[in-house]
UniProtKB/TrEMBL annotation:
Assigned keywords, A-Z: Hydrolase, Manganese, Metal-binding, Zinc
Residues the entry annotates as binding Zn(2+) 1: 88, 99, 198
Protein name: Allantoate amidohydrolase
Species in which this protein is naturally found: Gluconacetobacter dulcium
Keyword field contains Zinc: yes
Cofactor note text: Binds 2 Zn(2+) ions per subunit.
Subunit and partners: Homodimer.
Cofactor(s) this protein requires: Zn(2+); Mn(2+)
Length: 419
């Protein structure tokens, strides 16, 4: 492969350094590892910092009605529709520093690159840092992306977090009004397209020696909540044969979820990531357990069949063990294709800067792009990440790859201008 000349990497370095900066207190709710939940203690400070970087890059910055940070680089005419570049500023608990945030920093660096050269377009460029993509605090994900896309669900404004704090109260504490949450929605004619740069969060690009990849589609997701109700009892006196142990039943259900997830094609995955046990003390037979079920597959049908199998087997386990089961579908995100025209532009930009044919791949991870696709055509570019590790403090990127991604983003925007 042609050896590319050593790159000047100041912009890539700045993007990585800013992600590292935002990975520590007070921008993160944890003293040791990163945790940046939506409207958490560090959210306001994080948005302030990003707003300052957006302004420095030549944008105006504002916090929208849903607590997203929005930077705007005007086109040649005011009020022009925008090419939106975005990703998310929140994280999972004990997350990595680059999941989401690197895409926001690359959006800022893309604008800075054009501003430094005095380039203006027939369109504006907006950079959006979505406040809630992970769903780390409230039970569903992509809440503020759905606010921007105008696709909120009836239950969304009534969401309550694990501590019993409702969305309205959390917004009020942040200086926002829940009755205005829907005002974050954008008009279709304002958004020409949405582009997201994100770490792959998987091993493919590294294994095959690619710095970047072009995303063809984003996998379908279901998120369920399961509530198992048994009979609490004294751990010392309740005979085993008389028990209706909610945790033992849940444990059998977790193994059933794992078995069903493993019985399908490689891209079918099923995960129980969160479990609360009540009352949660060593000398009481658990009476109640709540756990999450996350099911994904590249196509809706495979996801749906796995969900049907799980919805059939869990009640059987509950009946046999004499416990109650309430299974609720909390989130349904269908598989989302990226726009073929934009993806062709992105592929051309990627091959121009890497000197190699681009690697095209499906994203098993969910992204803001799958919701923004309800508002505008979308394109995604992936960056290699070390060992494919993500949702883990060990998440890491190479500065050179970030620089190459920036070059691909600026090449994409220049091609987009020609369309
Ligand atoms: O869950 C996901 O795939 C994403 O990280 N929110
Ligand atoms: Mn930790
Ligand atoms: Mn994530
Ligand atoms: Mn992400």
């Amino acid at each position: 492969m042609v050896k590319m000349p050593a790159r000047e990497t100041a912009s890539g370095l700045r993007a990585v350094a800013r992600c590292d900066d935002l990975g520590v207190a007070p921008y993160s709710d944890s003293d040791d590892h990163l945790f940046r939940p939506y409207l958490g203690a560090g959210h306001a400070a994080t948005l302030d910092r990003i707003a300052a970087w957006m302004t420095e890059a030549g944008m105006t910055a504002r916090v929208d009605a849903a607590g997203n940070i929005v930077g705007r680089y005007e086109g040649r005419h005011p009020d022009a529709p925008a090419l939106v570049i975005g990703s998310h500023v929140d994280s999972v608990r004990d997350g990595g520093r680059y999941d989401g945030m690197l895409g926001v920093m690359l959006g800022i660096e893309t604008v800075a690159w054009f501003a430094e050269r005095g380039r203006r377009f027939a369109f504006a460029i907006e950079v959006i840092g979505f406040g809630d993509e992970e769903g780390s605090r409230f039970p569903v994900s992509m809440l503020t992306t759905r606010a921007v896309a105008g696709v909120l669900g009836d239950q969304d404004l009534a969401l309550v977090d694990a501590a019993g704090v409702g969305l309205a109260e959390a917004l009020d504490g942040f200086g926002l009004d829940v009755t205005r949450f829907v005002d974050a929605a954008r008009e279709r004619e304002d958004v020409l397209a949405y582009v997201e740069a994100h770490i792959e969060q998987g091993p493919v690009l590294e294994a095959e020696g690619h710095a970047l990849g072009v995303v063809s589609a984003i996998a379908a997701q279901y998120r369920f909540r399961a509530v198992v109700t048994g009979v609490a009892g004294h751990a010392g006196t309740m005979a085993m044969r008389l028990r209706h142990d909610a945790l033992a039943a849940a444990a059998e259900m977790v193994l059933a979820v794992e078995r069903i997830g493993g019985a399908g094609p490689e891209d079918l995955v099923a995960t129980v990531g969160r479990m609360e046990v009540g009352p949660g003390v060593p000398n009481v037979v658990p009476g109640a357990v709540t756990f999450s079920i996350d099911i994904r597959a590249g196509v809706d049908g495979v996801r749906d069949r796995a969900a049907e199998a799980i919805q059939a087997v869990l009640p059987e386990i509950a009946a046999r063990r004499g416990v109650g089961l309430e299974l609720t579908l909390q989130q349904d995100l269908p598989a989302t294709p990226c726009d073929s025209g934009l993806s062709a532009l992105m592929a051309d930009a990627v091959s121009a800067v890497t000197g190699a044919a681009p690697r095209v791949l499906v994203s098993g991870a969910g992204h803001d792009a799958m919701v923004m696709a309800r508002l505008a055509p979308v394109s995604m570019v992936f960056l290699r990440c070390r060992g494919g590790i993500s949702h883990n403090p060990a998440e890491a990127v190479e500065v050179e790859d970030v620089q190459v991604a920036l070059e691909a983003m600026t090449a994409f925007v220049s091609r987009f201008e020609q369309t």
